[in-house]
Structure to design on (261 residues):
């Protein structure tokens, strides 16, 4: 789960509520995968609705729908069609998603990506939303292709005696969830503080950066040998899913081009 520490008092709408305004669903033209900005009955797995998780959501503000549709489709356009259609069924973009009593900027289920967007003025920029999709979809791929993942090689990139935390939820709850690039942490093999939460979150942040087209990401990687090793492992994982992916491919992406309207 990708956190976003932008907290405010808002009206919470349970995931079982359905609102009926127009233009709440768009479809990626290449794959047919729906992108939904409404809150639908059954949008979350049943196991998320009760107990400790208590999944909640609030429908996206109408004025944010077109921007959200565009950015999700731009993020999806990087992937070969088969990678998407074989692993993803739907994308939700909501104003708010909440689990364990905490707000998240994104999460994922077996075949669905959930993103939050409160508007650019509150930090949900084009770059942030674009990155959130890649961050969350990377978790789905990591689960679906375990045969391509070398966890031992990844762990070997971490400092001696290092142990990950207790996951993204605990990191958010305890305030150790910054996703800002950190040069000192990069020297230890981590993109940002949040990467220390778990191996999955660490992988998510590395992959998010790979897809971002950001020059400052690659400058961070090139100045940190241990992080560079993780990038090579992540790129090798993606190359096994589809041969079109490689580190050279990711280094050739350009944020300005990716996000142009």
């Amino acid at each position: 789960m990708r956190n976003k520490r932008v907290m405010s008092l808002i009206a919470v709408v349970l995931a079982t509520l359905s609102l009926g305004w127009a233009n709440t669903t768009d479809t990626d033209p290449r794959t047919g995968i729906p992108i939904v900005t409404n809150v639908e009955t059954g949008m979350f797995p049943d196991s998320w609705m009760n107990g400790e998780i208590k999944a909640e959501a609030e429908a996206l503000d109408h004025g944010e729908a077109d921007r959200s549709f565009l950015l999700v489709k731009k993020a999806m356009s990087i992937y070969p069609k088969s990678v998407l259609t074989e692993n993803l069924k739907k994308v939700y973009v909501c104003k708010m998603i909440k689990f364990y009593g905490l707000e998240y900027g994104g999460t994922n289920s077996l075949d669905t990506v959930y993103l939050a967007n409160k508007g650019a003025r509150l930090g949900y920029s084009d770059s942030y939303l674009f990155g959130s999709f890649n961050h969350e979809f990377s978790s789905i791929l990591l689960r679906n292709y375990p045969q391509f993942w070398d966890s031992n090689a990844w762990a070997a990139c971490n400092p001696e005696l290092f142990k990950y935390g207790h996951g993204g939820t605990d990191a958010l709850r305890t305030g150790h969830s910054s996703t800002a690039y950190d040069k000192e942490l990069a020297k230890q093999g981590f993109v940002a503080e949040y990467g220390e939460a778990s191996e999955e979150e660490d992988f998510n942040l590395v992959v998010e950066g790979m897809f971002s087209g950001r020059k400052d990401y690659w400058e961070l990687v090139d100045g940190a040998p241990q992080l560079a090793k993780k990038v090579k492992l992540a790129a090798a994982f993606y190359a096994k899913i589809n041969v079109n992916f490689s580190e050279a491919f990711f280094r050739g992406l350009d944020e300005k081009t990716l996000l142009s309207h």
